[in-house]
Predict the structure.
Amino acid sequence: MDHLDPDQRQHLRDELERQLTRLERSMKISEAATETVELDQTAVGRLSRMDSLQNQSLAKNLAEREQAKLAHLLEALKRWEAGVYGVCTECREPVAFGRLLIMPESPTCASCG
């Protein structure tokens, strides 16, 4: 993290925390959308059931992406605590501030990633 000045470090730490909070909120909403679709033949028409199943499938895909993003953010925070945040996990060179600004969870530099 030596290649980042204190303001950059604080900005990136705040962004990691902000994304984590936003993701956790989104995951709560997504969780409700992935619940089992009730197929009550008397209350819902065939097309509505198909729409419900399709929406559930989309919500499950979103939940999988959110889980992956959560894992990446938590790993970035672990790297932060270990003092190696912003250092490429492949080549050990500094990760550019601009890359971290766009993807604060990025473990690699542009060359390796």
About this structure: The helical segments are 6-33, 46-82, 97-102. The domain at 6-102 is CATH 1.20.120.910 (Four Helix Bundle (Hemerythrin (Met), subunit A)).
